[in-house]
Amino acid sequence: MGDEVGKGLEASAPAVPVPSRAEMATVIQVLAEQGFGRNEISRRTGFSTATVSRIAAELEIAFDRSKSGQALKARLTDLKLAQMSVAEGLTEDLTHARIMLRTASNRRDLAFAAKTISDLARSAQALTPEMSDANTVEDARDFFTDLRAQLGAVRDEFEKQHGVPFDSDEAGRIIKQQEETQDDES
Asked: Cα dist. 78→37, 44, 84, 126, 140 in Å?
């Protein structure tokens, strides 16, 4: 009987080749060079995050945590937008429930509409993100800090590529020439 179960499992489970450590290292290195983080490499390859971390450490690959922070901020912004969208939908449902309350023809319908309004109002309030001046100022500060860093990176890349200071007359001519080339192409 035990042999029959084993044979059944062998027949139903296709053989999946296990990559060698060298193959895993190559894949991880290529994806890391393309700018993917540890979690994204793990998700794309099916390797555990521990394996990715271990092999990356052996290859002396360091993941840029600033990109993870930016991705997290973007994800949180997306979640807030989705949350606000749900809250808006609940507010629309509240309008319909108020109509039900006004048109209730008996106590049971009246009680049902009142309970629905209470539940929808609580849910909408819980899902509506609170904005404060502190959040707005902090978000603006973060935005400008990130913008400054990105502009600095663009300046440094330009200077590295062209070998001239970004604020020089020569840099102005190079930029103007690149703009004219782009205009001609479009």
From this structure: 20, 22, 10, 17, 17
